Amino acid sequence: MDRAEPKGRIRQTVYCALRFYSTSQCNSWRISLTETDEGKNDSLNSEIELFAESLPYWAKYLGSKLLSGTKISDTDIDIAYTYILEDAGLKQSTEKPAIVISCDNASCDDFKNGLLLTSLQNLKGVNALVENQKIDFCPQVTIIYGVNGSGKTGYTRLLKKAFHSRSTEDILPNIHVASGHSNVSAEIIFTSDSKQYSLTYPDHKQQNEFRQFSIFDNKCVNVHLTNKNQFEFRPTGLDFFADLIEAFKKVEEKITADIANKSATKDYPSLFDGESDIKNVLNTLSAKTQIDDLKKLIPITGGLRGTHYQF
Asked: Given this model, what pLDDT does residue 4 score?
């Protein structure tokens, strides 16, 4: 009958995960970085993997999503919350798939040196731009010109959405077409170590390549001049922890909302007329109420013998 204890265990689990840097709340976790460049990435990745492996199943599930380069969705938060309820005994346990933790992906790699933006092609669903066009970028300067309405801004909107920009804009469909709009997509060609390869926006938006370029236009000027910049230094590869904490906070919000929903006042006494022992007990019903005390109030008569009451 005591429901307060499982809720407390859930909160303690989340708080512990949120404060994994604090030695007073949880065991501290430290990264041992080598002094030489050789093997530094491997050392960092292996430490991240060890940390992720040590997490409870629900947190390990979220960590594996991030390390695979996948953005945490609302569905992932719901699944993690279900695992928490199962671990706390508040929901029937189900068979859980094995989770493989691996940093062998772009989310753990360092940024690429000498990365070049080579071309933009196979655009779809971007304003009224003709689909499947291609722009080749010169290593020095590329100038795109044309009359008003020719599509220059459309390309800029796409680049600001795909890469980093202080002033992003929504990409609108072709207003001259009533239906049948294509989803926004574009193939972007990069060059690294003299090798070309392509990534697709928005499918590969989480890849590090999309964080290595910044797009600046006249609309960014006002943002840079009037808004304050929040400075944050985060060593490459440690984005994992910031993203994981944000996911933990969403789980905590879900727990808080669920507790508030289940803590709504129930007016059971209004179901009974007059005064009675049962009505008095219902007035003081709480998580501390004992099952045995309730069973004493069950009236057993000859006609009701054999009837089972389940609490």
From this structure: 39
CA distance 161 to 169: 7
pLDDT of residue 29: 36
On whether the CB atoms of residues 210 and 200 are closer than 8 A, the answer is no
CA 152 from chain centre, in angstroms, equals 34
pLDDT of residue 220: 85
Q: How many C-alpha atoms does 275 have within 13 Å on its Cβ side?
A: 0
CA atoms within 13 A on the CB side of 213: 17
Q: Which residues partner with 214 through β-bridges?
A: 164
Residue 81: other Cβ atoms inside 10 A: 20
Q: How far is CA 245 from CA 62, 238, 253, 256, 304, in A?
A: 10, 12, 12, 16, 55
Return the pLDDT at 6: 42
Question: With a cut of 70, which residues of the chain have pLDDT below it?
Answer: 1-42, 104-111, 230-237, 264, 299-311
According to the model, what pLDDT value does residue 233 have?
64
Which distant-in-sequence residues (6+ apart) come within 8 Å of 167 by Cβ? 160, 217, 219, 220, 222, 223
CA–CA gap between residue 52 and residue 99 (Å, rounded): 10
Report all structural domains of the chain as residue ranges with CATH numbers, in order of start. 4-108+236-260 (no CATH), 116-226 (3.40.50.300), 268-304 (no CATH)
pLDDT attached to residue 99: 92
What gap in Å lies between CA 311 and CA 308, rounded to an integer?
Answer: 10
Please, where are the H alpha helices in 68-114? 74-87
Q: Provide the pLDDT for residue 98.
A: 93
